[in-house]
# Entry
Amino acid sequence: MKAWQILGLGPLLLMCGAVWGYGSSNSSKACAKPGFSQFYPPDKADVVPNAKFSFLASPNTRPDTIRVVVKDLSASIAVKPVPQGYQVSGMLPSALHGTFARINISAEGASQCKGSGGWLVNIGE
# Structure
């Protein structure tokens, strides 16, 4: 009877091995989030109202998904391809003055992974 039980386990173990060979959902394609750098003006800088800003988005960023929001106000941007990725520039919303504001960036990467970033500026009167 023991030999019969052992033989019955063989096919079961082979099937389990085949299932484990495919891996889990964690082993699927790696998520490459877009990155952001070269912020201008620099973090925590004092700026005038309606000041220009710019930053660099990594090459894996989908340019049509780049969004910039400053203190719940959308900022219009221009995106230009450069060898290092995408140069993004715009102006702070004119309604903001006499306040600290975070320039929030969001975008999707080539594999639809979402990335975000940003920096803080002090907008004068």
Notes: Residues 36-123 form a domain with the Immunoglobulin-like fold (CATH 2.60.40.1220). The two ends are 90 Å apart (CA to CA). Helices lie at 2-20.
